Amino acid sequence: MPWKLFRKDLSDVCLRGRFPRLSHLRLGDEDSTIAFTYSFQPSMHIEFMVSILDAAEYPDNHSYFAFAVTDNIPPAVSAILETVQCKFNGCSLETFLEGFCNYLDQAALGREPRASSPIDDDFDAISDGEDMDWDEYPDAPQMDHSVDMKQLRTDLRAAKSAGFKVGYLGDLEGSFIVSISCRIASLGISQDAMQMWDVCPTHFIVLLLYYPRGYRRLDHIVSQSQTAPSPVRMYVGFCDRYKPTAVSIPETHQEFSGLGVSNSTLKSALKSSFITDPLETLLNDRFLSIVQDRLRHGFSWTGAEIFYNDAQGKKLDTKDSKLPKYFVPEEWAKFTPGFVKADDLSQHTAHQLSLPLIAMQYTLRRFVKCTEFCLNCHCKIDTGFEALKPYVCSSPLCLYQYMQLGMGPKLEWEIVTQPYVVDMLVSFAYARAAQGQLNDLPSGLGIKVASTGSTLPSWTARLDAAKMTLLAQKPHNLKVGEWILIKLANASDLPSTVSSLCSTVLQVHDQSLVEISQPISVGYWTDTQDSLSDGLDVQVVPFRVDFDSLAGDLKQKAVMLLLDTLPDVFSMKDFIESSTPEHKALASWHGKICPSALYVLRWILASNRSCIVHDDNPEHQVTGMHNYMQFRLAQGSPDKEARFVQELNNSSNMEFPTLFAWHGSPVYNWHSILRQGLNFAQQLNGRAYGDGVYMAKDLEVSRIYCSRGSMSGAKWSRSKLDITSAISLNEVVNSPTKFKLTKPYYVVTQLDWIQSRYLFISGGGIKAQEENKNKPSKVFKQHPDWTARGPGNEPVSIPISALGTRQSQSHKNKDDSNGQATGHRQKKRKASTKGVCGPSESSSTTDPNDDTEIEDLRLLDSDSDGDVTGKSRRVDASKSSHNLRRGSKTDFQPGTLQAHSFKLLGPPSYATTTATKSLQRHLKATLRIQDREPLHEIGWYVDPTLINNVYQWIVEFHSFDPSLPLAQDLKQKGLTSVVMEMRFPPQFPMSPPFIRVVRPRFMSFQQRGGGHVTAGGAMCMELLTSSGWLPTSSIDSVFLQVRMALCSTEPWPARIERDGDYPFSEAVSAYRRACQAHGWKVPDDFNRIEAA
Fold first, then answer.
1. For 827, what's the count of Cα atoms within 13 Å in the CB-facing half-sphere?
2. Domains contained in the chain, number
3. Whole-model pTM?
4. Spatial separation of the C-alpha atoms in residues 771 and 697, rounded to whole Å
5. 304 domain-assigned
6. Prior bond to 337 cis, omega within 30?
7. Does residue 131 share a domain with residue 153?
């Protein structure tokens, strides 16, 4: 079978290392597409999408169509895409990737094109197994890992001063990552928007800047040639903590997996979303060019983005750069926090600017304004309706790539989490198409449909329903995997009004016999399979007509036909939940999901820009509406909610700032209303009282409009809801004197005064719920004269949750004796964006995830390049031991040990690159654990201010069990810890460290003393010899075992003999004697420690 062979070939080519410059090779959203990343220089990547045309003919008669998803690809690569693809027709996937990569290497890396023989000659011109030799190319990047520590520190301090959380991941002497973050709750984004964007207010939005070749200043980066590889790559995501683990970034996983950063904690993983993925593309493809334009010409962010777009395809001269449109000021919502609007780039020159800070400011700007820009081309969207969910512009190419690349919330996720919402949206679209008013059609998606009115061939055949076969009466060219429409042989042209079936071709036995899948009935097919068992003459029409080529009325009918081929939403939900992770995509449900129908389904959900949530919790439901299914509804951009609150603040009605009113409309109108909001741009039902949005306080008045207009009896046949009517409940600014009319309707012309809060639907598939006599615990107090009334003219109780973003603020209002929110217009009810103090603040409670790690504090507070490893005394004990303030139970006081109070040998003079880097990583990991865990639980302490060399550590062991003789001896002598020295050999981690007691002196074994302490103070443990050491051991695990040895009471407990220190020479001699006595091997490089 072609599909099985293709999937097998794809699995084979995905093996690691098969194509060194390809990564993330995977199946696309459709079975006939693949995607991969081509990396031709460090930090230079191109994303490709490849469609396999005529995939049913694989591997003989198919072809490939590849295009680059990444912007601004080299011209030579563009030329390759235009010229070489036809050379791979009929080639296997492996052959295509091998040849395609070779051509890309020639274009991207500057190789001279080599004479090539035809593809059929098995690529004789391409050397088998040839690897790239970077030395062959003079422009190959030289890996310089030097870091300007002073500049890095200055730039991070600038970001910290702006209120952001900053940190780093990795080795500052090599490849590392700078992290900048802030709480999402501090950005002033509405609650509805956060729900729609699938983000959590307590999480951090994190910008990561990956420097594979060391840190570079902004002015150095923007002044380099545009053809040079970028020295920085950026990532955006969300995290529970202020910085994630480095290994949670796919492209850096291998490089950072050995940094001692734990990747076992999902809490510290960087999580992406349908918003962050396009934002990453924008940052890596355009951001630095936009910064260059701003620095060169003095543009605003908006002007620089317009200039960048205008410059695509033509060269702009100096005169063009003076146009006013490039200097337009930034437009912000009134309540946008100041740090989000901050623009440091407009205030300084390049050498004074912090790239991390500028990048974070731009990231936040695009994030909070994401609904204003196309997710694909990143251009400003000019539309009359302000969306709550990011989308794409009206360009057919953008819509095509939006669907092809799976931007936006995943279809499967929406089906699983909100199946009733999906059912409702599809039903609304179907009703709109049945009415012939579906004007915003899914054009430009490559949708193929069946139409007998076209010039494409169709065949007459006999259908055997028992065997699921078609016997064609003349030769055909149907292909395996192709979808077909089956109609009565003499039926009319319109499949939505005649008996029709849809099926897919499973097997073609010859030019007459075709095996098909179980047919799916569409339209008004009434015959059963049993009635067809004796055979029936039918007309077979393949899905080969381009949807875009159809006339307007046929497009509406084609949409209906395609939606009728879909299973019901709950069947799709069951399929997704029961499938293995690699087969959860609906595209893998062959024979049940038509690819064209899947495109239409994805378009319906993606183009809906309202936030709709089905909530059956009585606490969030309007009372008296038990015969309806309730959906909480929010529309408009995040800024629209802020403008609505501003109108409330301007209202003269202090006690009852808003009222609630109903709006009814026929089912077929709601597809449009959910995309454009309530407006009066089109006249649908007549306007006896002039322009405006018509609403009523009585449900029965608005319900009349729900049944107006004919639906021709057309409903989506797969709907479980079987919707017959829909009506919304809207919150309106309570200024009736300014309404155009108040009786018998409210006629409101000010759209900013209206916010939709609930959508109610009724239908044959909706069972009446048992009426809940109890009101929600928190309800909105309505004006007595303007109280919304539901069925039976009874007043309805509206929960506080209907207020959306103002819900949390309303809870702060005092309740009256009835337990109702007063509804008073108070300052506390202002939008959540008001009063935000800074990007790091989110609540009044302290969150341990806000705590800055010790290594980040040390970098920020140190004054010299060598300070990062621990010299800085600015990081005092109170900072590094904040866990004491979290309830630590110990008398040990960290940071009280003074270096002048004991005498040590000088630091070791030896050093190796391997050992130094390993020790730096171990030190960071150890200090991180120490800073995170309560001191009394871990029982050891490493004072970073006492470490002048990573080969020599001072460790204090403390907080012993009070019942131990050792703890009692320490207390009697006024001591709180055992001080030890830890020396590392030049071959670490292959050789173990040497650990000895500095003070106090212990009773020896001959004196019936224990604790595994030798007479000279060295620790007597096989772990610390070549016989027992494991290079994979972590330092904290070594500390644990040393502490356990000190606490051991067999054969005798450790006891203190007297005050005083052990000389280093005594410990060395005692260590050698212990190894000899136990038969342990002394490390080969121990003599280097001894001679240090």
1. 2
2. 5
3. 0.60
4. 22
5. yes
6. no
7. no
